[in-house]
Prior knowledge:
- The structure is a single chain.
- The protein contains 16 helices and 22 strands.
- A hairpin with a 5-residue loop joins β5 and β6.
- By secondary structure, the chain is of the alpha/beta class.
- The protein is globular and about 75 Å long.
- The structure holds 1,4-dihydronicotinamide adenine dinucleotide and magnesium ion.
- Magnesium ion (MG) is lined by residues 221, 245.
Amino acid sequence: MAQVELLGEVTKFVEGSPQMMIGGRRTGAASGKTFEAVDPSSGKAFAEVPRGEVADVDAAVAAAREAFEDRRWTGLRPGKRAEILFKLGELIKGHGAELAQIEALDSGKPVKIASGEMWAAGDVFRYYSGWPTKIYGETMPSDDSLFVYSLREPAGVCGGIIPWNFPLVMAAHKVAPALAFGNTMVLKPAEQTPLTALRLAELSLEAGVPEGVVNVVTGFGEEAGQALARHHDVDKIAFTGSTEVGRKILHESEGNLKRVSLELGGKSPNIVFSDADLRRAAKGSMLGVFMNSGQVCTAGTRILVESSIHDDFVSSLVDATGTMKLGPALSDETGMGPVVSSEQLQRVTGYIEIGKSEGAELVTGGNRAQELGDGYFVEPTVFTGVNNEMIIAQEEIFGPVAAVMEVADVDEAIAVANDSIYGLAAAVWTTDLSKAHRVARGINAGTVWVNTAGLYDPAVSYGGYKQSGFGRELGKHSMETYTQTKSVWVSLK
Length: 493
Ligand code: NAI
Ligand code: MG
């Protein structure tokens, strides 16, 4: 396989002991401790990263607080903030090749796909650079002797806690809107993938974001993450990750009743009706579940197929799955990389064993790809004969495992689709327009795709129903997430 050669900037960055960013200064952990960054394609450590703990979070929050209170960012002319955010987006794109390689090394994502994501992360900043100039208040009707208006103000010091599946994109989803709406931030990237967030902090300074506005503390969830969620001087936490940890964040946040928004797990239905364009549906469903090695919160892991086309669909799905080329992240030919860590490898292969023991039929995949060495490679796996009560149909696996189920008609499809604690996303494949809209309305989820899957745009809001979380990110709805309103009463007497 054609191995991609590492850029000089990348080698320099990973070998130069990457540092946290606190108050505009690159720094190690106060304790001097570090942890290893591991390349999932080889299972080998390739860098040492500061292991931030309570003291480091305290310092970062203090820096973010000072930057917020002295209005060095919030108080800038909106047009200036817009200019800086746009520049940051352009810098991310300009450094796309370098960032993509770092992301590929750190997360196991194929470098070609990582390049697209780096562009998308830059695009989030470009989108949000349009917002500082569009934050309006309102005038409110009241007594004739009064003038009442509202100010839409930032939430304050925001904590962002993010997962490892789309490291820089997730960082952008937190930092860009927080900054656009005038907040300052402490970001805690996932311990599996801390590196691109550190480069983001450096690039933000280069773009002109004042020191202390974007702080990044690397470290573990139970240490740095918990300290941030518990911190009494943090006004808001925006979290993306597992439902289990989302629940913990709520408890950790209760001390000062900080605001919380949660983007959590999913077990999204992907419904294929008999009138669908079968080949397109098979390919789309395949990508919908195996993209990013299945490590996508909106992955269409429950594939509901109308009985009359079940067998044909499954054979098209298996054919499409065969086109997914499994391989190391730093190869140009790879379509699907490893899963992110040895824990995830255990977890995903554990679920495959559960599927077998529950009586589901394995039609393709089902194994760790041994031929690829010590990396955390799992074959794209399809189970058929699944019923919705099975564990593999109810729990988020977060790996390349699809569960195919038969449904008789539209009503059963909607009922099965909604029979889940989650409600993050759904996809529907049909050529019948009214059926498509009826199903879209019937499904309890924050996103529904029709004849496509996995699409995303910074202008389109995103978030969950049920235990997939609450609060909306992206688009104009993120304004509610990152601002608060103040009513001002003025007597005209
Ligand atoms: P996680 O939910 O534990 O990690 C997400 C982030 O939360 C990380 O930055 C982590 O350091 C932090 N964190 C962990 N415990 C914390 C705590 N007590 N307080 C504050 N922050 C904390 O996800 P993990 O353990 O990496 O993966 C386990 C499973 O979670 C996956 O198999 C998958 O099912 C699910 N998951 C779902 C994601 C999604 O976007 N829906 C993303 C990542 C994982
Ligand atoms: Mg965890």
